[in-house]
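in:
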């Protein structure tokens, strides 16, 4: 299910980003991901876990489709390879750190709930940072690729 929703998310979020703009798409994605993290903190059935994991996969696939485009928008297509490599690497590092945080949460508290709450907070921070970056780029001279939502 994760793989199916991940693939669907890549397609759907690409269309969503094109339709409403990158920043609103990112903000929506991050807030939806925060909500599902809070939901995961309370999951107690296999079905609810499957639903939550499917949504996580859908949103993660969306990030994988929107991040390259946003990188090209902000740094230019000419620099896409070098800059996106850093973004993709940071995503991998975050995945490893998230696993460590989840394991530490389980070990220290007997539950993954504190880690999921922390992850939800980080998703909200990501949404705020996306809006802040958009506002900063709006102040750039006319013709900037990131001026439009």
């Amino acid at each position: 299910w994760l793989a199916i929703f991940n693939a669907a998310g890549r397609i759907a979020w690409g269309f969503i980003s094109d339709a409403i703009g990158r920043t609103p798409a990112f903000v929506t994605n991050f807030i939806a991901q925060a909500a599902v993290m809070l939901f995961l903190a309370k999951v107690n059935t296999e079905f609810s876990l499957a639903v939550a994991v499917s949504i996580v996969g859908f949103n993660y696939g969306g990030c994988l489709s929107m991040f390259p485009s946003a990188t090209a928008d902000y740094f230019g297509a000419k620099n896409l390879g070098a800059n996106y490599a850093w973004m993709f690497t940071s995503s991998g590092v975050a995945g490893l750190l998230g696993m460590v945080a989840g394991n530490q949460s389980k070990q220290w508290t007997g539950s993954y709930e504190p880690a999921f709450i922390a992850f939800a907070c980080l998703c909200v921070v990501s949404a705020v940072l996306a809006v802040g970056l958009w506002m900063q780029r709006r102040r750039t001279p006319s013709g900037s690729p990131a001026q439009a939502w």
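note: The chain has five helices and no strands.
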